[in-house]
Amino acid sequence: MNPSLKLILILIISLEISFKPNLWANLILIGGALIYLIFHHLSWREFLLILFFPLLGAIAIFSALYFFAPDHNLIYAWTLFTRLYVFVFLGACLTLTTTAGKLARSLEQNLHLPSKFTYGCLAALNLLPKMKAEVIRIHYAAQMRGTSLSFWSPRLYFKATLVALAWAENINQGMLAHGYRENASRSIIKPILLTKKDWLLFLGVLILVQPILFIL
Amino acid sequence: MSSIKINHLSFGFTPNNLLFKDLSLSIPTSSFSLLTGPSGSGKSTFLKLLAQLYPTYGGKIDQGSIQNLPTKWSMIFQNPDEQFTMATPAQEFIFTLENLNLNSQQAEKRMLAAVQQTNIKQLLHRNFSTLSGGEKQRVAFAIILAMRPKLLLLDEPFASCDPSNRAFLIKQLALLKQKDITIIISDHDFSYYQHLIDQVFWCSNHTIKLSSLNQLSTPKDTRLNFIPLPHPTPILKLENFSLHTQEQTLIQEQNLSLFTGATLLTGPNGSGKSSFFRVLTKMQPYNGQILLHNKNIQKIKNKKYFKQIGQVFQDPNNQFLMVTVAEELKFGLSHCNNPLLKKATVNELLTLINLNHHQDQVVYSLSGGQKKKLQVLLMLLANPTFLLLDEPFAGLDQHGQQQLITLLQKYFLKLDSQKGLILISHQFNNLDNFFNYHLVLQDKELQYVKEKR
């Protein structure tokens, strides 16, 4: 499906389940998302990560509602427990099947978001792995100068923030050097298609979810 | 012939400290200009003024103006990491050509031609983070070829290039020159492309003046003499060592020692010199064992290890921890391990590297060459046993290079005979008789060479 439509669909469904507690709907959505992901070659590693990553938070919500709330409502506790998983699985449907670059280009081309916003976000995303390496490097560079910055040291993050600010400015200058101008029109070399099929899929899933959510 | 005109321009980053005072200059268009001068004299700043990146991103024009600037410009920055927005060269191409509002046929044609001309097809879909400095520079040139700007600004574009890559890129520059493009290049070492230069501008003392090639001392022959030590002691030993990245093998399995004294490390772009340094600083995984004084470095705690192994990073910004020059030096002094520098004052340290009036300047705003000098001094204060230096001469003029070498000799190598350093450089001026050994990384093998270069 078109990345922008996928994003909007996931946002709408997530918003709906936030307002309408429905255990069955949650379970069906998780199942649906899982089938979609398996269809897109979900690996075991990714599956286990999706499963374990939110577990702690989900257990905390569950125990708060079941053990510590006055009415000990088991169904409600399970509903909120599964709701967290719906969010994570739906999110995975986007992040595991669409690259950030594709999504950014789709937002620019299909939703006509300002190019500065989309490319700014994209450049920031490209910086994330660099940032991670940078924090380790700052750590080592400090040790080379006879001081140890712990991972909670303010100086470490102050320095990391400085680096990020410098990068932000460099990205801006780099973009300008490669011909980017904020309000100039840009051509589209690699179009992201938004087809009838995309719309049909989008509306189909959206309509299908409503009875599950409100009748079941 | 038309020209870019600079009229009585005054520009500075702080109100009381102007970098250019009442600068008037005319640069002929469709010609090749060299901008040279001491480190920190404002060459990079001047190029960014022409690109109109300044005053947009810093500084203020007090008076005067620049007229007749072509709107279609592009720039190759000193640090190739600052060049790219996207994750891969292919994506960067598309981004750039979309900016120029080209349709897909035009874009494809230009991209194919540029890729072919610069021979970067195999790099197109690799992540920028996996490319070497020289490879990035090649991609930067390819994108320029596809862009066809009217004004091309190059800020020491060959600093991280090996001789063959440099020769290749200079050939591309010569082709660009024929295409009615105004090219302005800032550089210290221009001996390789003197034949392309139409006019020379000398940048110093807050102004830029027309000069000529004969007035400039060109760097001399770069043959180096190495002086082997009588009793070299190994500091680091590599045993059954090999180095692979996701895409390729950089170093095949081998045994090797790194000795006390000074070692020069050279090798073609992309051969893995910087990766080898990352291995020695535990930032990149490898196979086999590395021993520091016969102890496996993986078994030495980082805190203890980095007391003995220090690095002058290729990107100077990695070195700094504080904000201003004085703060960096004060911090260095409070953790000082160097008996010769322990009792020095901040002012004495500033004098050592000619930064006397810069104590309150933010370190990130120093010029490329000034940063290098500060970096080296900071590592000398820390005083490790073994020092890695990655391109420490980038952005430095002859005088600055000489100064660094003197510092390294006086405050590091001569402290005691158990010290060692290994230095990556593509420029060899002033380096005669400094090194004891020459290590070459080529064809996936690290090897000591004995003969003169």
Automatic annotation (TrEMBL), chain A:
Protein name: Energy-coupling factor transporter transmembrane protein
Gene Ontology CC terms, in alphabetical order: plasma membrane
Record's keyword annotation contains Protein biosynthesis: no
Mode of membrane association: Multi-pass membrane protein
Cellular compartments annotated: Membrane
Alphabetic keyword roster: Membrane, Transmembrane, Transmembrane helix
CDD domains: EcfT (cd16914)
Species per Swiss-Prot/TrEMBL record: Lactobacillus rodentium
Superkingdom, natural source: Bacteria
Transmembrane parts of this sequence: 23-40, 47-69, 75-96, 199-215
Location, primary (coarse class): membrane
TrEMBL record, chain B:
The encoding gene: ecfA
Gene Ontology MF terms in the entry: ATP binding; ATP hydrolysis activity; ATPase-coupled transmembrane transporter activity
Name of this protein: Energy-coupling factor transporter ATP-binding protein
InterPro entries membership: AAA+_ATPase, ABC_transporter-like_ATP-bd, ABC_transporter-like_CS, ABC_transpr_CbiO/EcfA_su, ECF_ABC_transporter_ATP-bd, P-loop_NTPase
Organism whose genome encodes this protein: Lactobacillus rodentium
Any one cellular-component term (Gene Ontology): ATP-binding cassette (ABC) transporter complex
Similarity comment text for this entry: Belongs to the ABC transporter superfamily.
PANTHER family: ENERGY-COUPLING FACTOR TRANSPORTER ATP-BINDING PROTEIN ECFA2, HEAVY METAL TRANSPORTER
Subcellular compartments: Cell membrane
Keywords tagged on the record: ATP-binding, Cell membrane, Membrane, Nucleotide-binding, Translocase, Transport
One Pfam family it belongs to: ABC_tran
Domain ABC transporter, chain residue ranges per copy: 4-230, 236-452
Membrane-related topology note: Peripheral membrane protein
